[in-house]
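Example 165.
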Amino acid sequence: MFTAQSISAATKPDFYSELETQLGALLAGETDEIANAANTAALLFHSLPRLNWAGFYFLRSGEELVLGPFQGKPACVRIAVGRGVCGAAVARKTSVLVQDVRAFPDHIACDPVSRSELVVPLIRQGRVIGVLDLDSPDVNRFDRDDQTGVERLADIYMERSIGSA
Ligand code: SME
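Predicted structure in complex with methionine sulfoxide:
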């Protein structure tokens, strides 16, 4: 059985480095992308402080994101590419860091408690297949160190997971 270790890192990059090690161990030997997404969401939700939602959306039919495994309150199921923070990350093919969702006019408020958001696209062979989305109840919760760290965690998820999404 995998047991998440509490992380007592001195710096945020060290914290993410330890979390990368934990995620690699958690996903070791498993390639199912849904199972791996579920465990990745659970690890992030329970390891990263000040989150109210952590989860995945997968691109369907090339034009719409559909809700995948997550931790947190029930969420919007379908998001069109280009809409919301998630759809913007797909359209731009880059991470989108929103310090205050009230200043992002197209933000989709699945949970009105969310105040800042980090969305990282999942890219396979140059194509976006989905996003990893983190929400926080705090304004300015995420910085560039978080973005870099979560991008590396998303890379580990993608390296380990083979699927049809
Ligand atoms: N806020 C997101 C929608 C997904 S929820 O945060 C889980 C957006 O604007 O795309």
